[in-house]
Specification:
Elements (H helix, E strand, L loop, with lengths): L14 H15 L1 H19 L21
Length: about 70
């Protein structure tokens, strides 16, 4: 039996509306979902870059931290 996934869709009529939706979505997603999404982006980046597996890690520096509303 295939796995069913929930998909959340939003129609934004301005960039401000889209940003508010994103902020609320990620605030409600929880820390594990945010980490999984970030790690997925690292994997995708390395696939596009065609790097070797030994570079499979998060960067160790932080440039900007933004607190989500909530």
């Amino acid at each position: 039996m295939p796995v069913r996934r929930k998909v959340k869709v939003n129609i934004a009529y301005s960039f401000a509306d889209a940003e508010q939706f994103d902020d609320e979505f990620w605030a409600n997603a929880g820390p594990q979902a945010r980490l999984a999404a970030g790690w997925g982006m690292v994997i995708d980046y390395l696939k596009v870059k065609k790097s070797r597996g030994n570079q499979l890690r998060l960067r160790r520096t932080v440039q900007n931290i933004k607190r989500l509303r909530g």
